[in-house]
Amino acid sequence: MPTKPDYAEHVQFGPNNSPRHGARIRNWLIHTEQGNASAAALAAYCRRPASQVSYHYTVRDGEVHCPVDTDRAAWSVLDANPYTINACFAGSYAEWTRAQWLERERDIAIMAWLAVQDARKYGLATVVIAPPYQRGDGISDHRYVTDALYIGTHTDVGDGFPWDRMRHYVDVYTGAIPAETITPPPAIDVEAETAAAWIGERITTGENECPDGRGRWAQFAHGWIYWTPETGAIAVPTHLFETYAELDYEAGPLGYPTVRHTVLPVGDGTKVGDVQAFERGVLYRRFGEPGYYVHGVIGARWAREGYEEGPRGWPTSNEQPHGADGAGRIQTFEHGALVWHPTGAIEIRN
């Protein structure tokens, strides 16, 4: 028997439901929220009488909430409510790309498990009905109701949804394929797909272990991707990576990347440089110029002033020792410097 995926289930039924009036359940349907709520928050909304909407399940980040008993009809798909079970990915959008969906692969597996368990309970077919839809009993989405049943106009879960992964997990939980094949794609591969528009072809084969034993990395034509269990997989473009390398990579003052980079424009929208956050600082680099990082008290003061759009502009040096004994710190910017003194005071030099 395949192992149940790890999730926490919370059952609290609300009033937004109706009798099925003897209808046979024919379809198990997935939905997007078109918002960024937690599973608990979306379930609470489904229990609010004024909302006039509900799902049998809301799922996000390993949390499953059940605001409607599957023996009754939720209010999700208009005239199809009596013969469907409906589950929503909380914090999701129909506009998501495949790469964005794959970041929620754990929840896709959970959805498949719930669908298979309900199929066994109600005698529902476990056929996954993906676009282009063929009308019939099975597991599908809200757009199936629109395109195959001609009810309503919704198009979630969208073109980017990885139906192959949903079908994979359904096959695992029905026993059609061995359970050991449940292997989500490596996080670096998922990040590479997310960054496919700019990162280019993979250069390294597989993943390389970092010297500290904590992280892994892979090189691509226009950037690198680093991964740790704490930070996940984050891509660094070559433009920033050159400075990151000068600072001794993850062993240097910055540590591992924690947020994807952003291209910074000036007031007229012209792209002038990149910024990316790391564990112990934020790296800035104008195009064609050296890069520098900000952190600590000086970085916090610069941030309060408005970052690079504030009165001091972009950093022009890294933080350096200051004072006769070197106990202080100074960092220069385009329009002045910030000096930290051991007393805790910050001096502004224009």
TrEMBL record:
Source organism per UniProt: Tomitella fengzijianii
N-acetylmuramoyl-L-alanine amidase domain mapped to chain residues: 14-158
Superkingdom field: Bacteria
UniProt-listed SMART domains: Ami_2
One example of a Gene Ontology biological process annotation: peptidoglycan catabolic process
One Gene Ontology MF term: N-acetylmuramoyl-L-alanine amidase activity
Protein name: N-acetylmuramoyl-L-alanine amidase domain-containing protein
